[in-house]
Amino acid sequence: MVILLLALLAAVCPVLALPTIEAKGSKLFTSDGAQFYLKGIAYQLTPDDPLADTSQCKLDSALMKTLGANSIRVYHVEPQLDHDGCMSAFSDAGIYAWIDLGSYTGKNTPLYGGNPQWTKSKYQAYQKVMDTFHDYDNVAGFFVGNEMLTTGPDSKAAPFYKAAARDMKAYRDKKSYRKIPIGYSAADITALRPNLQNYMACGSNSSEALDFYSLNAYSWCGDSSYEQSGYNMLQLNASDYNIPIFMSETGCNLVKPRNFDDQSALFGPDMADSWSGSVVYEWIEETNNYGIVSYGAPADPTATGDGVYEGYTRTGTPTPISPDFENLSSQWATLSPKGVSADAYTPTISPPACPAFTSGMWEMSGNVPLPTIGAKGTDYTTALPSASADGSGTSTSASSAASSTRASSIAVSRRNMESFWPKVGKWTREHPAAWYGLVVAGFFIMGVVVV
Ligand SMILES: *[C@@H]1O[C@H](CO)[C@@H](O)[C@H](O)[C@H]1NC(C)=O
Ligand SMILES: *[C@@H]1O[C@H](CO)[C@@H](O)[C@H](O)[C@H]1NC(C)=O
Ligand SMILES: *[C@@H]1O[C@H](CO)[C@@H](O)[C@H](O)[C@H]1NC(C)=O
């Protein structure tokens, strides 16, 4: 009996998991009322789903805990796999997951091959990811896209992302899932920003705007400063922003070793009132040289199998890379802005105006009607005000460098391992009242037996 109870108590752990994350006004909060700042790390070991290998997740989450991380960002998941083991490993380490609903290969995102589409099949693919992940308490947010708009004229595809967010928010609410924030992760493109940022939040109907916005920015390199890095400009454009904003990728590696000094700006008095932290790019060391851990010496670039992919071993025990790992860890250890409590915070900022047409920079006028599911990309975009223009965006150099694992995809064939205890864990999360009833009954019976 006691053993059975202990086993059941072990299974109840998911119920006692982390407080959930919600967006309120321009800030993120935990369900127990504290303001939440991401101390995140981009986590995508291979093109496969990194949240399906429990023992790997246990090894990585344990080291991330010593790093001081509270979030991972995952670019690609496979909804048909079993994620219970990994999600509880990260939860046990106090780590939330921010998950791309699409695929970083572009397959399921609205903009693909230059022709924006928000089709029923893409919508259904997004739904499957949401269905699979919504009931993990440590899922903090979903992205409807990553760095898909990279030039001024690409702005005409922005309504497809806003439509995807609108439809996924409506789906989330229709299914009575909790209000997991839904946002977009933007490349730092001078010509597009800040219009894209404002567009994603604009309009009086919040059902049609994003819940948060995030930026992949690599402009703070080495011994830079708030002014020199241009973070002061990012702050100017964020200070009046009505929804949460954070860095969904950061960590320039042009100067080594990395000191991650931008973290002290993001979490300090200049920015912490407007920004909700950052995700540092990235966990694993690979060709792009952004990693803070390695899984062994570089392998033969042509080798495959045994966890080796594109010249790097990507499984096993992670080893911190010095001094970058320690530098990030010591930065985060000193940075703990308190922010405000949810109760003490009343949002006052209203949505920004929808941007006006500016040739080559923003090629739509105002709050254009969003495309419906199945709308043809070209039909929709030609109906928008057209550019007379030559405009082409200028991309910041380093943001496109952070893409080695995103470039290719390998076939996934993992068996969907179903085991008993994860199912019990899932059941307890779905039926907490019934579960607490069982636990109380168990203790009662035990009491009777002892007496
Ligand atoms: C707000 O947008 C949603 C989703 O498009 C729509 O269903 C609703 O009718 C809109 N509300 C108003 C007041 O226009
Ligand atoms: C963004 O900030 C820049 C620099 O201060 C400013 O020139 C620009 O008007 C701002 N744009 C918006 C839309 O807030
Ligand atoms: C980063 O590491 C270098 C080399 O060990 C060290 O000199 C520097 O102080 C560290 N910086 C931070 C911010 O920890």
From TrEMBL:
Protein's name in the database: Uncharacterized protein
Q: What is the lineage of its organism?
A: Eukaryota, Fungi, Dikarya, Ascomycota, Pezizomycotina
